[in-house]
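Hello,

I think I submitted the NAI job twice by accident. Can you confirm which output corresponds to this input? Input:
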Amino acid sequence: MGVWASPEFDDHEQVCFFTDPQSGLRAIVAIHSTTLGPAAGGTRFKAYETDQRALDDALRLSRAMSYKAALAGLPIGGGKSVIIGDPALIKTRPLLHAYGRFIDRIGRTYATGEDVGMSVADIDTVSEVTPYVGGTSRGAGDPSVHTATGVVHGLHAVVEHRFGRSTFEGMRVAIQGLGAVGWGVAERLHAAGARLIVADIRPDVVERAQAQFGAQAADAADIHRADADIFSPCALGGVITVRTAGEIRAAAVAGAANNQLETPEAGTALAGRGILFAPDYVLNAGGIISGLEAMTRMPGRRAVALVPLEDRLAAIHDRLAAIFDRAAGEGRPPEVTAETMARELIGR
Ligand code: NAI
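Support: Only one job matched these inputs. Its output is below.
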């Protein structure tokens, strides 16, 4: 297993491997950049096919966190942890405590929180042994509420840039995934006058959206093809492939799901068809933005002057609008321009 040889290695500042044989813990923490401040990034607890895949995931996701925090204007760097193994089989209190003790050692440069396979209760358990965790039940509360608010601010920029409009009135938005974030987005768009098309693998939430929002139901496998103005992926990563990009009928793709573009070519395919893509890590930064207060209160951390949370979330609109304008000026897809802007901000 190689760090420096990994295709995902991007001059990461630090990569830590933590092992606790007694509890069965094997964890990797990748810190991509601390140029703007101590790094932050959630903990993904997952059974990986190989250790190299786990390492690659930590390297890739930590770089994405650097970009997300930088473009959200936060004094935070990018990092990410993975705990290797099936959480249903190996997640125990002693393991989470062993993990927390390791995080405590590197807490001056990294703090963590939830991600796939980790619940708020798990984060509470980790927080029993280290202060370097955010998203506990005593903290900022459910980040998905703030993520949904931020996504809708971003969607405003999409509506202005792609459709030359200032409201959602009558806009048709196809939302894939009505979970914590997708439901919040649906609620806000419905209240703003949008017409919704929805899909989820859980029939109960789809029925609820039909009843509550008058939404039209679509097949989960086909919603990207819906006759909509905007396609909003709020479930899974990798939904935009070269194939699906060719099938999308919407004029814009903008949603909460992380890593929506399966490959850079999928982004190029969207751009080639004149479909505006809103880089996901810009749109979905509301969660990390809401966690800033908690991070600045951690031991040894610098106090920063905080503008109100609502203003920080609203800034997602301005940032996205700036990315769209610059991308149009450069003749490049927005995700390429966003990456360039993020790298400029972190001095790369
Ligand atoms: P969630 O787990 O609450 O909701 C996901 C929803 O998608 C569920 O209702 C699930 O049934 C549905 N789903 C799963 N597979 C599907 C499929 N094939 N087709 C249609 N629906 C499907 O997750 P949450 O928190 O709402 O997050 C959604 C996305 O946003 C994820 O990609 C997540 O990584 C991303 N995100 C979430 C943030 C947060 O604050 N929760 C922050 C940043 C990104």
